[in-house]
UniProtKB/TrEMBL annotation, chain A:
Major location (coarse): membrane
Matches recorded under InterPro entries: ABC_transp_permease, BCAA_transport_permease
Family: Belongs to the binding-protein-dependent transport system permease family. LivHM subfamily.
Presence of the UniProt keyword Transmembrane in the record: yes
Keyword set, alphabetical order: Amino-acid transport, Cell membrane, Membrane, Transmembrane, Transmembrane helix, Transport
Transmembrane segments: 6-28, 60-78, 90-113, 133-157, 183-209, 215-232, 239-257, 263-286
Originating species: Belnapia arida
A Pfam short name: BPD_transp_2
Membrane topology type: Multi-pass membrane protein
Coiled coil: none
Subcellular localization, as worded in the UniProt entry: Cell membrane
Protein name: Branched-chain amino acid ABC transporter permease
TrEMBL record, chain B:
Keyword set includes Nucleotide-binding: yes
Keywords: Amino-acid transport, ATP-binding, Nucleotide-binding, Transport
Domain ABC transporter: 3-234
Keyword field contains Transport: yes
GO molecular function: ATP binding
Source taxonomy: Bacteria, Pseudomonadati, Pseudomonadota, Alphaproteobacteria, Acetobacterales
PANTHER family for the chain: HIGH-AFFINITY BRANCHED-CHAIN AMINO ACID TRANSPORT ATP-BINDING PROTEIN LIVF
Protein's UniProt name: ABC transporter ATP-binding protein
Record-stated family: Belongs to the ABC transporter superfamily.
CDD domains per record: ABC_TM1139_LivF_branched
């Protein structure tokens, strides 16, 4: 029984990571109607930046904060320099740019930091087992960090006028311009925010999966599955979906398919959702009258 | 003078819709822009606020705005209720209000909300409702309120009567009469229903295939034989 409970709790901990990355995917999707395949690679690059700062002797949380800010800037720059010129181009152009970004960022990370697997520190340590060994200090800490990030993002979009303007720009760019919103910059901010959220996810998962240039590849798949379950245009759904995939994946890995086939679970979910219910379980239905 | 348009040309891609328009909109009061379907009324409004490729001179409050970005023109105090209304369907009435006043930093925003409730009491009842679920008339009211919350000097209105039941149209034009009396905002009104527009307007222009063919005080245009026969139907 304890084993089962532990599997669920560990699933929630990794689910938080998937939920964060899924949220990042949904944010870009809402604004551009494309999935940013490079989201994972960008997060890996961020984590390597944090790693080099920790290696250089900076305290963990200083490196953490600096990385979040730097990632935000990188996200903004990617939108301004790469996405902006193709914003009116065809779908395949976007797909091409995203794949190009994936390859460039991924290989650049390997070229700069090397391909050997590195140990990334966890800021959460404890002297003894927590809750009778049900949960590790890192699982508890990273889940808390994830929940704080998700709550902050939610509050930002729900209650600040900048958050409202970003939503307006995503839903209806033409009308957003008419009320004076600088839609281009809202998109760039969205990219920055998504990159920052991805960076936190990367730093939280690195102590578990270890740090190497392809660290996020599998995670991106799980996150994508989570986003699809929740409905790719629904931020809250994506978060719930991310947690659900985390738990499912862990349980399936422990009791059904074994660890080697865990990734298949994500792929099965992706295909299953796309075939049975493309709008996702929580896909938002917008009613409209004319 | 609020808006001064000289030699304005605009179109979509290779197609030219406007062939050199000249007209002015005076401070306060209502100027009507009339014309049949396809005359270029909607394009004229889009050209003024930079939503289509435009040539010529558009001067707003003494400053040339031709070729500027739509959001910059809005920030200068020019609000536009476009065809299709331009409300944020997915967001609540409250959020639409907040977006209307998005660029404002003055402390009177709250008082302006109250003012909108006076003009559009129905919107207060719908405050937390998603805009997409409002009736057509309520959506039109929300669109006008959203535009007025920018506290514009000039308001462009694209066919506020479109697709609405006659009773609702009467209600909305009644409200617009009040807005005209009580707010001092200049209004450029595009309407297909010339009768309705000329009742409200002080001045009017008649547009035919991208050119202005008649202009003058609204009262005079109502008496004009040709206009009466072609556009007013009596």
């Amino acid at each position: 029984m304890d084993g089962f409970a532990h599997q669920i709790i560990a699933g929630i901990a990794t689910g938080g990571i998937y939920a964060s990355v899924a949220l990042a995917l949904v944010m870009i999707y809402q604004a551009t109607h494309h999935v940013n395949f490079a989201q994972g690679e960008m997060a890996t690059l961020s984590t390597f930046i944090a790693w080099s700062m920790v290696e250089a002797g900076f305290p963990y949380w200083v490196a953490f904060a600096a990385t979040v800010m730097l990632s935000f800037l990188i996200g903004v720059l990617v939108e301004r320099l790469l996405m902006r010129p193709v914003q009116n181009a065809a779908v395949l152009t976007h797909v091409g740019v995203f794949i190009g970004l994936l390859l460039i960022v991924g290989n650049m990370t390997g070229w700069i930091f090397g391909y050997t697997t590195k140990v990334y520190p966890s800021p959460f340590t404890s002297s003894g087992p927590l809750m009778g060994g049900l949960i590790s200090a890192h699982e508890l800490g990273s889940t808390a960090v994830t929940l704080v990030v998700l709550t902050l993002v939610f509050l930002f979009f729900r209650y600040t006028s900048l958050g409202l303007a970003m939503r307006a720009a995503a839903y209806n760019p033409r009308s957003a311009r008419l009320v004076g919103i600088r839609v281009g910059w809202m998109l760039a901010l969205g990219w920055g925010l998504a990159a920052a959220i991805g960076a936190v996810a990367g730093m939280m998962v690195a102590p578990v999966v270890f740090l190497d240039p392809s660290m996020m590849t599998g995670i991106l798949l799980y996150a994508f599955a989570g986003a699809l379950i929740g409905g790719i245009d629904n931020p809250l759904g994506a978060v719930i979906g991310g947690f659900a995939v985390g738990v499912l994946e862990n349980l399936a890995g422990a009791y059904v398919v074994g660890t080697e086939l865990k990734l298949t679970v994500a792929l099965a979910i992706i295909i299953g959702v796309l075939v049975i219910r493309p709008s996702g379980l929580l896909g938002r239905v917008v009613t409209s009258r004319v | 003078m609020l808006l001064d348009v000289k030699g304005m040309q605009a179109g979509y891609g290779q197609t030219h819709v406007l062939h050199g328009l000249d007209f002015v909109v005076e401070e306060g009061g209502v100027t009507a822009l009339l014309g049949a379907n396809g005359a270029g009324k909607t394009t004229t409004l889009r050209a003024i606020c930079g939503m289509v490729k435009t040539e010529g001179d558009v001067t707003f409050l003494g400053e040339r705005i031709t070729g500027r970005a739509t959001e910059d023109i809005a920030r200068r105090g020019l609000a536009h209720v476009p065809d299709g209304r331009g409300t944020f369907m997915e967001l609540s009435v409250e959020e639409n209000f907040r977006l209307g006043a998005y660029v404002r930093r003055d402390p009177d925003v709250r008082a302006d909300f109250e003012r909108m409730f006076e003009w559009f009491p129905r919107l207060k009842q719908r405050w937390r409702q998603q805009a997409g679920t409002l009736s057509g008339g309520e959506q039109q009211m929300l669109a006008i309120a959203r535009a007025l919350l920018l506290r514009p000097r000039l308001l462009l209105l694209d066919e506020p009567s479109f697709g609405l039941a006659p009773l609702i149209v009467q209600e909305i034009f009644g409200i617009m009469r009040r807005i005209r009396e009580e707010s001092g905002v200049g209004i450029l009104l595009v309407e297909q229903n010339a009768n309705l527009a000329l009742e409200l307007a002080d001045r009017a222009y008649l547009l035919e295939t991208g050119r202005i063919v008649v202009s003058g005080p609204a009262a005079e245009i109502r008496e004009d034989e040709a206009v009466r026969r072609s556009y007013l139907g009596y």
